[in-house]
Amino acid sequence: MAGFFLEDLSVGQSAELTRTVTDADLVAFAAVTGDDNPVHLDEAYAAGTVFGGRIAHGMLSAGYISAVIGTRLPGTGTVYVSQMLRFRRPVRIGDAVTTTATISGIDLERARVGLSAVCAVDGKVVLEGEAVVIAPRRPAA
Amino acid sequence: MAGFFLEDLSVGQSAELTRTVTDADLVAFAAVTGDDNPVHLDEAYAAGTVFGGRIAHGMLSAGYISAVIGTRLPGTGTVYVSQMLRFRRPVRIGDAVTTTATISGIDLERARVGLSAVCAVDGKVVLEGEAVVIAPRRPAA
Fold first, then answer.
1. ipTM score here?
2. Count of beta carbons in the 10 Å neighbourhood of residue A111
3. How close does chain A come to B3, measured CA to CA in Å?
4. The whole model's pTM is what?
5. Which end of chain B has fewer CB within 10 Å, C or N?
6. What is the pLDDT along chain B (141 residues), one digit of tens a residue?
7. Which residue of A has its CA nearest to B79?
8. What stretches of chain A adopt beta strand conformation (E)?
9. From the list A19, A34, A87, which residue is nearest B34 (CB)?
10. How far apart are CA B126 and CA B62, in angstroms?
């Protein structure tokens, strides 16, 4: 249980998480989702693509956004409504991906919270997009 | 290597994939992304939420969309540009999620392809949204 109640959130508040992508992460992500596109798994194939080598599944970085939102800001009890994702650059094995979510709007009546999310590697944006979530209300005393 | 070149795609063309969510999938997805929100992992906690039990990470279903696009339509060689996701209903362990992607638009000059994607369980939409991808061109003969 970690995070904030709706009433304790403010616009501009942010949280982040850094994860380093491993070979095992790509193998596991492929197994769980069924996305066994060889650009993620097969170095010989990937070396011949525009990427020049294996890249992570874009949805792995999207999972990092979900992790920040679901475990830190707002955190436990948050329900996802929508997420826009714009994939900007590839992520490679060994990259440390820092994911930052920042509150961009709060609708207290509907308990809806907007967040802008950015995943970056060495300061360069690899994925960005906006989320809308329902944040948990503080229980009545 | 599976899928289609840009020149072979047509509006209305679709592909699908069905995956049944397991407990192990949620554990692995949490480990890979860092999203260890207890609503996905802790039955005792989840039973007390509005969902009444553990639910899958929304981004797991998003991964199924990526799988259809990256392995079937357009398939190998496809590059993700953007993905909108609207989470409609929870997905539970044991649910068979059928993900369908349908081509909604093709820009031959820019090699951009739009797809509408729907994840459904027992015919009910759990996740939907639009993707934009770059499809691989047929190599010159």
1. 0.95
2. 17
3. 10
4. 0.96
5. C
6. 689 999 999 999 999 999 999 999 999 999 999 999 999 999 999 999 999 999 999 999 999 999 999 999 999 999 999 999 999 999 999 999 999 999 999 999 999 999 999 999 999 999 999 999 999 999 887
7. A87
8. 14-20, 79-87, 96-107, 112-121, 124-134
9. A19
10. 10
